[in-house]
Design brief:
single chain; alpha/beta
């Protein structure tokens, strides 16, 4: 629905044979944006686009409506919607977009609508960051590795979301070699009072530094979690401490928040 509405009469790239049979979505979606901050200079590093229902319901409500045969169309719709909405809001920082690795049949073909949407809306493609959820079971690791390589070759950044949860662990770093590692909130929650979590995150931080992957802590909610993570060498943060997802809005972090963290 949305893809047809946006592209209209504009010629769109021909779909590959694998995805031509996928069913169109029979519902609409909207996008919320959550800030990601760089603690080194207290700036906005980027925003993650998060899918929402038309009335603002959470991602779980949306995903519950997606049928297996609609996964490709859903993935494409979310990419295009995120880019077009972000461009309309004037976003010039990085835009983090979740993608479903199992919905990408041929990376060089499936990326075409994304590139066309960015061109039509005037969004710079070098600001795109594609993150694959580690919680999605990867059925073909070699295929996903090819997606990551293709995206990096096009100048995109790549990220593994929810690292430390789901179906893969350190092996995903070897296979995908992402630019960013997003620590799952399960490792972040209460880390200030948990030496085991601290040891694990310190180890992952050391690995990231050695292989060239930057760590990003997501799900940060308290000042003590933030300070502990900063002490472990992490610079990038996402979580309610800095801002909740805002529907079709780009919120900034209040100066008072930074002042309280520095106290």
């Amino acid at each position: 629905m949305y893809l047809h509405q946006f592209f209209g009469q504009t010629p769109t790239p021909r779909a590959c044979a694998s995805c031509e049979g996928d069913q169109r979505l029979d519902f609409e979606v909207r996008m919320a944006f959550q800030p990601i901050v760089d603690a080194r200079d207290r700036t906005i590093y980027g925003y993650e686009a998060l899918v929402r229902t038309v009335d603002g319901g959470g991602a779980g409500e949306v995903l519950a409506r997606v049928q297996p045969e609609q996964l490709y169309r859903f993935d494409q719709t979310c990419r295009v919607k995120a880019i077009v909405t972000a461009a309309g809001l004037g976003l010039r920082e990085r835009l983090f977009i979740n993608f479903f690795p199992n919905a990408v049949y041929q990376p060089e073909t499936c990326i075409r609508l994304t590139l066309q949407a960015a061109q039509m809306s005037g969004f710079p493609t070098d600001k795109l960051v594609f993150e694959a959820a580690e919680s999605e079971q990867v059925t073909d690791q070699a295929h996903v590795s090819r997606i990551f390589r293709d995206y990096r070759n096009r100048g995109f950044q790549t990220a593994i979301d929810d690292f430390g949860a789901g179906y893969a662990g350190l092996s995903s770093l070897v296979a995908f070699q992402p630019d960013l590692i997003k620590l799952d909130m399960g490792l972040v929650r209460g880390i200030d009072a948990d030496p085991v979590r601290q040891a694990i995150v310190a180890g992952v931080t050391g690995i990231g530094n050695r292989v060239g992957s930057t760590l990003l802590a997501e799900g940060v909610e308290t000042a003590d979690e933030y300070r502990t993570l900063r002490g472990l060498g992490i610079d990038l943060f996402q979580g309610y401490l800095f801002g909740r997802p805002a529907l079709e809005r780009l919120d900034v972090v209040p100066d008072a928040t930074w002042a309280s963290l520095a106290a």
